[in-house]
């Protein structure tokens, strides 16, 4: 009884101190939130999710957004940082999101880095903004700001890249202290990035990874506007999340390879994987087949029937000046005689789908992503099937 009385007295005393300090409950809760989020983020295993991005844009004179393309990527959390690859690839590499996507506005951090910067790195100035109902949860709302000198948020637009400082809001459940939503607004955007504003909203939910459930992003939305009044929106969904062992799942096996494919060879190819504007997405795998032997000094260096692997890198729909698609295909590997070698080439000509012309921005696109063949399909919809023939000239593989 005496111990209980002492404890009660201690609690009353502490309550009096808190009351005298004038600190709001949300301010006192912030330290608990930081500790809770630090533990949750620190316990995250190495895992990856399928990231599906639908990108929409509108012109400066338009008021309606139009869907341009859909991207499918694999995003992973490894060693405390985000990594990216195409779906189905056996490993992640050092490629950034902008390296893979190449066009439009991209930013890093939506998967994990923004939250880690706020709750683990202790670089954000945070203030309590009150409580409200959010997605059926009683939520505490906080405002934060991260100065540019501590920011790791990289924006890339039209081949130009730079770090931006950020400010925004986050909401946590008042009982579980788990993060419900995070909003990020770009602040002090570098002058080399030709956009006026960037806003991101990330919603979190509980997902099972292995034997344990973790609180990770479920959806995100990125909004941007440039100085001409043109704007865009990226709608992002994370799904098919799974854990992996970094020592085995992000490295290739010891697959024997033939000698590198020489440069300046001409390969005639037949597309064997259909590209359907109503079903396909950027990031989907494609296959093509070599239709005749490729000779060098009278010797067959690439036999007829060799299989070339690649990806759809662009599948963008535009309405002006007339309905058309910009299609970009990248070929990355060639297989024959049971062996695989890297492939880098330039698309020189194609046939098999009406009247098409090389995309006006092919040169600019290939400056960023070498080895991508880009062209225009003037149609509301289309299918490229095995009648689609291409001629590629190999380049030196670096």
What does this protein look like?
The protein is mostly beta strands and 398 residues long. It folds into two domains: 40-243, outer membrane lipoprotein receptor (LolB), chain A (Clam), CATH 2.50.20; 266-394, Lipocalin (Beta Barrel). It is built from five helices and 26 strands. It has a ten-stranded antiparallel β-sheet with strand order 3-2-1-13-12-11-10-9-6-5. Strands 14, 16, 19, 20, 21, 22, 23, 24 and 26 form a nine-stranded antiparallel β-sheet that branches. Strands 4-7-8 form a three-stranded antiparallel β-sheet. Strand 19 (307-318) and strand 20 (324-336) form a beta hairpin. The termini are far apart. The relative contact order is 0.12. The model is unreliable at 1-21, 247-257 and 360-368 (pLDDT under 50).
Q: Keywords, please?
A:
5 helices; 26 strands; disordered N terminus; 15% helix; 398 residues; Lipocalin; nine-stranded antiparallel beta sheet; mainly beta; ten-stranded antiparallel beta sheet; 49% strand; outer membrane lipoprotein receptor (LolB), chain A
């Amino acid at each position: 009884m005496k111990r209980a009385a002492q404890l009660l007295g201690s609690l009353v005393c502490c309550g009096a101190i808190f009351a005298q300090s004038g600190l709001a409950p949300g301010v006192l809760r912030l330290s608990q939130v930081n500790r809770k989020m630090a533990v949750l983020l620190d316990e995250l295993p190495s895992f990856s999710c399928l990231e599906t991005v639908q990108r929409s844009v509108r012109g400066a004179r338009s008021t309606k957004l139009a869907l341009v393309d859909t991207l499918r990527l694999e995003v992973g959390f490894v060693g405390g940082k985000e990594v990216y690859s195409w779906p189905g690839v056996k490993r992640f590499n050092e490629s950034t999101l902008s390296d893979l996507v190449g066009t439009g506005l991209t930013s890093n951090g939506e998967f994990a880095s923004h939250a880690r910067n706020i709750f683990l790195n202790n670089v954000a100035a945070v203030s309590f903004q009150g409580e409200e109902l959010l997605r059926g949860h009683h939520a505490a709302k906080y405002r934060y700001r991260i100065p540019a000198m501590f920011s790791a948020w990289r924006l890339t637009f039209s081949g130009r890249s730079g770090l931006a400082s950020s400010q925004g809001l986050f909401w946590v459940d008042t009982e579980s202290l788990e993060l419900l939503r995070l909003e990020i607004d770009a602040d002090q955007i570098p002058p080399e990035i030709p956009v006026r504003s960037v806003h991101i909203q990330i919603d979190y939910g509980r997902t099972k990874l292995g034997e344990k459930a973790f609180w990770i992003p479920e959806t995100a939305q990125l909004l941007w506007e440039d100085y001409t009044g043109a704007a865009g929106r990226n709608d992002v969904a994370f799904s098919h999340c799974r854990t992996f062992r970094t020592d085995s799942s992000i490295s290739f096996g010891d697959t024997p390879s033939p000698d590198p494919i020489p440069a300046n060879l001409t390969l005639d190819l037949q597309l064997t994987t259909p590209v359907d504007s109503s079903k396909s997405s950027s990031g989907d795998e494609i296959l093509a087949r070599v239709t005749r032997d490729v000779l060098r000094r009278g010797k067959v260096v690439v036999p007829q029937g060799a299989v070339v692997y690649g990806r759809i890198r662009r599948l963008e729909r535009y309405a002006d000046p007339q309905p058309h698609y910009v299609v970009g295909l990248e070929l990355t590997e060639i297989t024959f005689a049971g062996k695989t070698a890297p492939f880098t080439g330039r698309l020189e000509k194609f046939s098999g789908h009406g009247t098409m012309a090389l995309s006006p921005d092919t040169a600019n696109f290939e400056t960023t992503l070498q080895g991508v063949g880009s062209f225009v399909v003037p149609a509301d919809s289309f299918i490229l099937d095995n009648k689609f023939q291409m001629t590629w000239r190999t380049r030196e593989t670096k």
